[in-house]
């Protein structure tokens, strides 16, 4: 903070436009917008932040691997985060939220399966490689085993402690920008289990 006669200058950190810029640069950007899943750029920044958390910190999950299964918990009315991962990887994404306005596969959106149910209310018959929660009101589902969990919590805590990686992503256009990552893979230097 600096003080000059009559003025106080206070530096205030502001979010970056990196994810908005990225959306414009992507080949799939227009396809993502055309889904109609994103009402504004704020929602884009949240879903992209989850995507980049995985890309940067869960490198054992290869984007080109069609066998990777992802569960997105609390995706909202529309499967925004699921679509983000589907358009940007070869993965199959299960979007699970009782508020979803879709059920089953969506025409024009490949590899996104919508399940308008509460997580845990139905046996989805798989342990996913990755669990993603973006401002979910459901806690991290401890009954599912996965190689990694990425949580960007909001007003309701995700319920888990001691993430392996935790940071604020200033690309997120919301005050709720804390990113928490647990990794359970055999990646060198990564703990194999964590207390829930
Ligand atoms: C604040 S909204 C976030 C929606 C979206 N992820 C977003 O960022 O815009 C929280 C979501 O959690 C969902 N939710 C609450 N309990 C849930 C549960 N048990 N299983 C799955 N989703 C749940 C709600 O239906 C709601 O859509």
In one word, what is the shape?
globular
Biggest sheet architecture: 8 strands, mixed
Q: Tell me the total number of β-strands.
A: 10
Q: How much of the sequence is in beta strands?
A: 15-25%
Structural class: alpha/beta
Query: What is Rg?
Result: 18 Å
What is the count of helical runs?
4
Name the bound molecules: S-adenosylmethionine
**Order of secondary-structure elements:** EEHHHEHEEEEEEE
Distance between the termini: 41 Å
Top-tier CATH class = Alpha Beta
The proportion of residues forming helix, as a percent range, comes to: 10-25%
CATH topology: Rossmann fold
- Strand arrangement in the largest pleated sheet: 5-6-4-3-7-8-10-9
Task: Round the mean pLDDT to the nearest integer and report it.
Answer: 93
Number of domains: 1
Extract low-pLDDT stretches.
188-196
Task: Name its key features.
23% strand, disordered C terminus, 10 strands, Rossmann fold, 8-stranded mixed β-sheet, globular, 196 residues, 20% helix, 4 helices, binds S-adenosylmethionine, alpha/beta
Verbal overview:
With 196 residues, the protein is of the alpha/beta class. It has a single domain (20-183), classed as Rossmann fold (3-Layer(aba) Sandwich), CATH 3.40.50. Helices cover 20% and strands 23% of the residues. The protein has four helices and ten strands, in the order ββαααβαβββββββ. It has helices spanning 18-25, 29-34, 41-57, 80-88; strands at residues 2-4, 7-9, 69-73, 92-96, 104-106, 109-115, 130-134, 148-152, 165-168, 178-183. The strands form two sheets. An eight-stranded mixed beta sheet has the order 5-6-4-3-7-8-10-9, covered by helices on one side. Strands 1-2 form a two-stranded antiparallel ribbon. Strand 5 (104-106) and strand 6 form a beta hairpin. The radius of gyration is 18 Å and the shape is globular. The model is unreliable at 188-196 (pLDDT under 50). It binds S-adenosylmethionine. The site of S-adenosylmethionine has 18 residues, from helix 3. S-adenosylmethionine is lined by residues 43, 46, 73-76, 96-99, 118-119, 134-138, 154.
């Amino acid at each position: 903070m600096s003080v000059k006669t009559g003025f106080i200058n206070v530096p205030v950190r502001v979010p970056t436009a990196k994810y908005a810029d990225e959306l414009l640069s992507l080949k799939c950007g227009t396809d993502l917008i055309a889904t109609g899943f994103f009402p504004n750029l704020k929602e884009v920044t949240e879903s992209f932040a989850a995507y980049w958390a995985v890309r940067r910190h869960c490198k054992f999950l290869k984007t080109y691997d069609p066998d990777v299964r992802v569960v997105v918990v609390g995706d909202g009315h529309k499967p925004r985060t699921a679509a983000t991962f589907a358009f940007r990887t070869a993965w199959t994404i299960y979007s699970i939220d009782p508020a979803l306005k879709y059920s089953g596969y969506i025409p024009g959106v490949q590899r996104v399966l919508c399940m308008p149910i509460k997580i845990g209310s139905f046996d989805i018959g798989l342990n996913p490689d990755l669990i993603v929660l973006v401002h979910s009101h459901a806690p991290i589902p401890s009954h599912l085993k996965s190689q990694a969990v990425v949580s960007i919590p909001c007003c309701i805590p995700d319920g888990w402690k001691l993430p392996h990686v935790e940071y604020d992503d200033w690309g997120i256009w919301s005050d709720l920008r804390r990113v928490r990552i647990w990794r359970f893979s055999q990646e060198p230097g990564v703990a194999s289990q964590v207390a829930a």
